Amino acid sequence: MNEKKSVQEVFSKNKEAYFTSSTHANGNDLSVLIHWLNPNKDLSALDIATGGGHAAKKLAPNVKKVFATDITKEMLENTAMHLQSYPNINYVIADAESLPFLDNSFDIITCRIAAHHFPNPDRFIQEVERVLKPNGSFLLIDNVGAEEPSADIFINSLEKMRDYSHGRSLKITEWEKLLSSNHLTVVKQEKRKKTLPYNEWVNRTLDKQSKIEEVKQYILAANTKIKDYFQIKIEHEEIKEFTIDEWMVLCTKSPIR
């Protein structure tokens, strides 16, 4: 199956789960997002791969207008229904790697917990640079791979097993190269451990018991080094929670050269 069709299928089926997900709806990064961006009512914002619209919802009261895009029509319709009380959010079906906007259109661009689904992150960053105004702000928040090879393989294999629309969680060093090569300068960044409640996480995308059991056994079979790195909490052979690495980075676009 085409990677982008996989994303549309998964997110269409699970549109409500992503709106209500505690990981997506209640992350501490949502309040930090406004503090870092320091937006005002004269600015226009773009939220790429908006999903449940949590970043767009946070931005809306603080900017002139928000364009919330997503490749999945059903997801976008569900989010628009929930966010009817925010009249300055506009919804556009769009591929993050081919945005339907003119060059230098937005003062602010955000992309939160989505880029690991993009098959071509280089094209995504090229598009961000293209539609962002000179001196504009880009805030990326995403799960990232580990620099240590075995931990990197483990988490990306686990995510793919749980969600076949998962592409790859890039390492921070890989993101940094993409940003710098596209005239996006890092001004602030933070790496943190994000705790995932296991049952909510595994049931968000899987409904077949055999697949759920496969994920469980994969985690239980991990060696001590992996279990320690991801802080996997197990009680009576039941997985309670674990952590993944998340990176939040604020960039500015270089002035027109």
Most strands sheet: 8 strands, mixed
Q: Helical proportion?
A: 40-55%
**What fold name goes in the CATH topology slot?**
Rossmann fold
Annotated CATH homologous superfamily: Vaccinia Virus protein VP39
CATH class: Alpha Beta
Number of helices: 12
As a whole number of angstroms, the C-alpha radius of gyration is 18 Å
Spell the H/E element sequence. HHHHEHEHEEHEHHEHHHEE
pLDDT < 50 runs, ≥5 residues: none
Shape summary: globular
CATH architectural group: 3-Layer(aba) Sandwich
Number of strands: 8
Please state the average pLDDT score: 91
The share of residues in extended strands comes to 25-35%
Determine the structural class based on helices, strands and strand pairing. alpha/beta
Distance between the termini: 41 Å
Domain count, please report it.
1
GO molecular function, one term: S-adenosylmethionine-dependent methyltransferase activity
Protein name: Class I SAM-dependent methyltransferase
Keywords: Methyltransferase, Transferase
Domain Methyltransferase type: 46-139
Describe the structure.
The mean pLDDT is about 90. Strands 1, 2, 3, 4, 5, 6, 7 and 8 form an eight-stranded mixed sheet that branches. The protein has one domain: Rossmann fold (3-Layer(aba) Sandwich), CATH 3.40.50. The chain has about 260 residues and is of the alpha/beta class. The relative contact order is 0.15. The protein is built from twelve helices and eight strands. The chain is globular. Keywords: Methyltransferase, Transferase. This is Class I SAM-dependent methyltransferase. InterPro entries: Diverse_substrate_MTase, Methyltransf_11, SAM-dependent_MTases_sf. One of its GO terms (biological process) is methylation.
